[in-house]
């Protein structure tokens, strides 16, 4: 569903690129998706697809433990890559992928699509201006939240078949060697859901925080506090599949605050920015756009210009490092 609705549909609609091939281990699904989106060639494996000389870049959307091996094959074949997050489960795995991209001078982007949200771009502009003019003083603290719920899927622009998900994919380890097996499902959930708000806080507050406090439950939910050079950012993380999706970040200044309210992951609308100052609240909104579409367009543009992505593989290694640090604290008690 994510591969078709959030990625394939957006690339197929972009006139600056051509979707020439699709690969899936399920032949009926591959054929149905190819027919729906007008894709001329269908392959049974990613390696068959990578043998196609017409392919210059690939999007990797698969089960999370298979992401790393497929991305590595694609990078080693000389293809630019956009992969879903998490990029990997360990810093060592992530570093291997980044090194492969660096050796071949390739564009390697990770699917933190919220960095591409137009409202997030607006929030970054506001924060940059406030930091420069000091009209609200300095930043004193930040707090973020992700209460997972209804994902906001407003369309069904995908096809599915009754085929079983086949085996046959190479899978990387789903955690560092020091992590007990019983903890790994929670770690997987943490990386899949909550790495978004961690990545976004780094985008807005600074690239390299440290973990100041951590209280993570077995499910991957809980609270962590990141230290951005003396600015504490507390993140409340709650799992769930019912109710509204609520996610956002508030950055408190000495004389006001900026709040970013994010839409559900699949909702085709922008984040909203609220500026509070002198007891008044100003809400900034723009035209309707979709972060996934903006991400696809940016990847095409980055490949054409050989530009560094907003969420590059090299930058996203930090998210894996922070996740390891958070869960190392849980293991050590």
Provide a compact summary of the structure.
Helix content is 38%, strand content 22%. The chain has 9 helices and 13 strands. The model has no long low-confidence stretch (mean pLDDT 95).
Structure, described:
- It is globular and about 60 Å long.
- It has helices spanning 2-12, 27-37, 46-50, 64-76, 91-103, 118-133, 184-205, 291-305, 313-332, and strands spanning 21-23, 41-43, 57-60, 80-83, 108-110, 139-147, 210-216, 222-228, 231-238, 246-253, 256-262, 272-277, 280-284.
- The strands form three sheets. It has an eight-stranded mixed β-sheet, covered by helices on one side. The protein has a three-stranded parallel β-sheet with strand order 3-4-5.
- The two termini are 38 Å apart.
- The protein is built from nine helices and 13 strands.
- The mean pLDDT is 95.
- The protein has 333 residues and is of the alpha/beta class.
- The chain has a domain at 117-288: 2-Layer Sandwich (Dihydrodipicolinate Reductase, domain 2), CATH 3.30.360.
- A hairpin with a 2-residue loop joins strand 10 and strand 11.
- Helix 4 packs parallel to helix 5 and helix 5 (91-103) runs antiparallel to helix 9 (313-332).
